[in-house]
Design goal:
mainly alpha, Cytochrome p450, 2 domains, 14 helices, about 55% helix
Length: about 325
Amino acid sequence: MDTTWILFVTPILLCTLIFYCRNKLSLKLKSKHRNQLPLGTLGLPFIGETIEFVSCAYTDRPESFMNKRRAMYGKVFKSHIFGSPTIVSTDADVNKFILQSDAKLFVPSYPKSLMKLMGESSILLINGTLQRRIHGLIGAFFKSQQLKIQITTDMEKYVQESMANWKEDQPIYIQDETKKIAFYVLVKALISLDPGEEMELLKKHFQEFISGLMSLPINLPGTKLYQSLQAKRKMAKLVRKTIEARRNKGITEVPKDVVDVLLNDTSERLTDDLIADNIIDMMIPGEDSVPVLMTLATKYLSECPAALQQLTVRHVSM
């Protein structure tokens, strides 16, 4: 599960590493700065190149957007995606330099639609002592032996239940199956919710919510962002219901999930709304990051019997 949180933002990066540089590097296109910008195009007014970027993500060649521009402009180029002028880097050395700059030269940000959906209290957007406090509390819990045992037990249970419904004469879509299992395991670790009607309702709202993470920042009825915000409000209502029930029950000495961990903290800044928002944010890895990794692991292990045998022996011995 540690990998889950390391890859927290993977679903929103799609094809490459995109930085919204708000400090030393600015995309305010004043004449005196034009010669400092990489080559590229900003596309249509407001929309920019968002439509083509998103369209490529739904094809069998999602990297084509980047490859086309890299061939035309080089490994680092300018664009305009999701309502913001953007510099895109597909160069490993450039990305390494930025990641190691410790936010002194480059300040990472996110698309406007994502910031709107995450909310101001999201662990992705808050900083300072509060961010460190939340990260520390959750990180310690996810490294606990107690949770590792619970996750192992739950995962085995959900895999067996899933396999019981498989039929020999029908194809099995591993990524879909792992996505469902990963979501169940994550939600159980976050709010101790078991599969059932309430889980399916939460999953339905979550699918509507996550579909707007990469959308144009237009919050009007009928738009994807508007629909996603409505879905998040419904999710937050379900999560707050759990939080309120726990508050009424009182503090538990041994937390069984992330809600307990955050409620047990004495900080008055950890409000119910903040906890609910961050619980929802932490469901995101169950959508793509973990399922993709598990699908690839299944594929490559099935193609390498020796590696599968070694893994099986190690697993049995643990």
